[in-house]
Amino acid sequence: MRRRHLRPVLRIEAQVYPRPWSLGLFLSELALRSTRAYRVARADGVVVGYGGLMLAGPDAHVTTLAVDPAWQRRGVGTLLLADLCDLAVARLCRNLTLEVRVGNVAAQRLYGSFGFAPAGVRRNYYVETNEDALIMWANDIDTPEHAARLARLVASRAARPAPNR
Predict the structure, then answer these.
(1) For the segment 43-91, what is each residue's pLDDT rounded down to a tens digit?
(2) Burial zone of 3 (CB within 10 Å; 0-12 exposed, 13-18 middle, 19+ buried)
(3) What is the pLDDT of residue 156?
(4) What is the per-residue DSSP string for 129-146?
(5) Is 145 an active-site residue?
(6) DSSP strand pairing (46-56 vs 95-101)
(7) DSSP code of 17?
(8) 131 catalytic, yes or no?
C-alpha cells in the first residue's frame, strides 16, 4: 500500500466499518515501515481490498483486512491474508493474531481456514457497536505444513486479482 492507494482504501473503509480509520491514521501506519506492512489487492488497476500487519518479534498482528463489498466472496480476502501470512514469515514471525467481531461468522470461517483458533474474547472491543471481539491465533506459521495450507487456499481461490506490493 502506498499513499496513492489511500483514496480508494478510505472509500472501502467507510463502506465496511462503522468507525473507519482516518487518513491520518493510515498515513501514520504507513510511516512505521520497520514494524508495519500494508498491502492492497487490485483488479484492473482498481483497489478492491487491503490488509495490514503490525510486526513484534516472533508475533505479527493483523491490524486490518477489508474487501470492497462488490468483491467480497471472490477470493480477495483469501489472497490478502495469504500475502500477509507470507510477509509475516518473511519477517521471521512464528505466530499471527487478530481480533474479529464475534458476530462476523464469515470472517471467522476464513480465519479458521488459515489455522486461526479462538483464544479469548475482548469485551466491548468495538465500542461503536458495543460488540465483543474474538481473539484468534495461528501458531507455527513458519512451518512447511502451514505453507502447504496457504498454497492450497490460494490455489482454490475464485478471484483473479493478486495483492500488489
Answers:
(1) 999 999 999 999 999 999 999 999 999 999 899 999 999 999 999 999 9
(2) exposed
(3) 85
(4) TTEEEEEEEE--TTSHHH
(5) no
(6) unpaired
(7) -
(8) no
CA-based nearest residue to 69, from 48, 84, 51: 48
Candidates 13, 38, 50, 111; catalytic one = 111
Give CA–CA dist 158/101, Å, rounded: 25
Answer yes or no: are the C-beta atoms of 164 and 42 closer than 8 Å. Answer: yes
Q: Determine which helix (DSSP H) or strand (DSSP E) holds 118, and give its type and residue range.
A: strand 117-126
* pTM of the predicted protein model: 0.90
Q: Within a 10 A sphere around the Cβ of 110, how many other Cβ atoms?
A: 18
Residues 99, 125, 126, 128: which is the catalytic one?
99
CATH no. of 3-164: 3.40.630.30
SS3 per-residue string spanning 18-79: CCCCCHHHHHHHHHCCCCEEEEEEEECCEEEEEEEEEEECCEEEEEEEEECHHHCCCCHHHH
Query: What is the per-residue pLDDT across 81-117, written as a single tens digit (0 to 9) for each?
Result: 999 999 999 999 999 999 999 999 999 999 999 999 9
